[in-house]
Each structure stands twice: as C-alpha cells, then as structure tokens.
Design brief:
The complex is a heterodimer of chains A (97) and B (198). Chain A is mainly alpha-helical and 97 residues long. Chain A folds into two domains: 51 residues; 31 residues. Chain A is built from three helices and one strand. In chain A, helix 1 runs antiparallel to helix 2. The termini of chain A are far apart. Chain B has one domain: Four Helix Bundle (Hemerythrin (Met), subunit A) (Up-down Bundle), CATH 1.20.120.80. In chain B, helix 1 crosses helix 2 and helix 1 packs parallel to helix 7. The chains are: A mainly alpha (97), B mainly alpha (198). At the A-B interface, strand 1, helix 1, helix 2 and helix 3 of A face strand 1, helix 1, helix 3 and helix 7 of B.
C-alpha cells in the first residue's frame, strides 16, 4: 500500500511542555480572579491582558500554532485581524454616536 | 492500493471551520461590549449575582480537560495507545463535570425566576435583562459546543479502540482537539466577561 500523503508531519509536543503550559494557565487564572477583586481599574487591566495571554497560550501550544507553517499561521492572523477590525469599528461607533 | 491522505488539508479545513466559530462568538462578544458600554452599572450589578466560585471551578475543569486532551495526542504519537485512551476518556469525564456544574448553576437561577422572560428578571432594569439574556445565550451556546465536543471525543475514543486512530494517523483526534481547545478559549473569555464582571 503506497500512501500519497501531504504529511508536513508535526513532532509530538513533549509531556513536559504541555504540563508547563497547563500550570501557567492555572496560575494566570488565579491571578486574574485575585486581581479582579482589587479595584475596577485592575480588574479591567487584568482582563485585557491576562485573558488574551491565556487564549494565546492555548492557541500556540495546545492548538499547535507554534509548530504550524506560514499558511495556517497566516490564516489565523487574518481571521484574528478581521475580529479586531470589527471590534475597533464597533467601539468607534459607540464613541462618536 | 493508493490511499490519498492530506493531513495538512484536513487541518486547514478544520481551522476554516473554527474561524466561523470565532466570528459567531465574536459577534456575541461585540453585542456584549456594546450593551455593557450603554449599561455599565446594571451589568456590574447583574454580574455580582453570578456564582464566581462555580465559574472559576468550571474554568479549572475546562483548562484541565484541554490539558488531558493535549497529552492524549502526544501519547498517540508516542505509540502509547492505552494511555491515550485513558486521557481521552478523562477529557470526556471533565466535560461531563463541566455540564453538571453548569446545570446546578442554571437551575439555581431558574428557581429565583432568573431566566429569559422569567417573572423575576422582567422586574429588573433593562440593562440587567440584557446581561442575563446574553449570559444564557452565550453560556448556553457554549454548553452546546461542549456537548458536541464530547460526542466527537467519544468517536475519537472508539477510533482509538479500533486502531483507526494511531501513531502517524492521528488527524481525527488532532482536529477534534482543535475544536475542543477553541471551545476552551471561548470559555476563557466568558469567565471575566460574566463571572468577574462585578
């Protein structure tokens, strides 16, 4: 049986890397919850920094973006940029209403 | 026999689907942001009624489920099929725990008359009605995604048991993983927007 494959095979991510990312995600969640009680300013600041950071870690390591080629990385960048444009346009709309 | 396999193509297809999911939830996040900027105090008041402990607990459950699923893919690629099966089973179990906790949370709110068009909710200020409307819509839609993910994970578990997902042929598990992790990412944003909104 011959295989006509487009493998671009990805080395498995090590158990150690996955465990480190999981521990960091739990720690960031703890910080986010703790800081949200300090003051409204810090709650918003933590939300705007730690939440995207957590999402980024999941995308980068668990979803293997780190190990993908430029094609998939570029596609994800375009999708995220589209979302950011939508969000900015909405806030501009609210601000100048 | 020539078998055509295109793992890169399969991953691209999955990512394209995930973009539609990102924009679906993205639209709801936009709606949330717009209404919150119009009713900041009412969103704050309504947010303080949610059970923070349960929200945080469920976050830990989902992060850990993503952890066990990521481990399972590595186990498959290392040829440790037995370990991979246990890890996928653990992921499904954690998904079940998440939904059970969610169920307790929702039923407590229902008992207090807090549900779309609920008697207690309709007495509230418009901003609070909007907050709970978005809360039930977004966590409900997210819950449906968890359910779909658990169904897909069960198929992956069967394929692992049958040996059709194995070392070097793990694209099915990989794509189910991408879906599950994205559903986890969406929850990462739901936690601060709803549970930590106060």
């Amino acid at each position: 049986m011959t295989m006509n494959t487009e493998h671009a095979h990805i080395e498995p991510v090590s158990y150690k890397t996955i465990t480190t990312v999981w521990v960091v995600l739990l720690a960031l969640t703890a910080v986010l919850v703790a800081v949200s009680h300090v003051s409204p300013f810090w709650a918003v600041a933590a939300m705007l920094t730690l939440t995207p950071l957590k999402a980024g870690l999941v995308l980068y390591y668990f979803m293997h973006l780190k190990y993908e080629g430029p094609l998939i990385k570029g596609m994800v960048a375009v999708a995220l940029a589209t979302l950011v444009i939508f969000i900015s346009m909405m806030f501009l709309d609210i601000a100048f209403r | 026999m020539s078998v055509h396999r295109d793992d890169l193509g399969a991953r691209i297809g999955m990512w394209l689907f995930l973009f539609t999911e990102m924009l679906l939830f993205g639209g709801l996040f936009l709606l949330y942001s717009a209404y919150r900027s119009l009713h900041p105090l009412e969103f704050h008041a309504a947010g303080s009624e949610l059970n923070v402990a349960l929200g945080v607990f469920n976050t830990l459950v989902l992060l850990t489920s993503s952890y066990t699923l990521a481990l399972s893919l590595t186990a498959v690629e290392k040829g440790q099929a037995q370990l991979a099966k246990r890890l996928v089973a653990a992921t499904i179990l954690l998904g079940t725990v998440f939904l059970i906790v969610k169920g307790f949370e929702w039923s407590a709110e229902f008992r207090h008359g807090i549900y779309p068009n609920g008697p207690e909710l309709l007495k509230r200020a418009p901003g609070e009605v909007l907050f709970f409307g978005l809360y039930f819509t977004m966590t409900g839609l997210h819950g449906l995604h968890i359910l779909a993910g658990m169904a897909l994970l069960s198929v992956a578990l069967l394929k692992l048991a049958k040996g059709t997902v194995k070392r070097g042929e793990s694209i099915f598990l990989e794509n189910v993983g991408l879906y599950w992790h994205l559903v986890d990412v969406i929850w990462i944003f739901l936690l601060p927007l709803f549970y930590l909104a106060a």
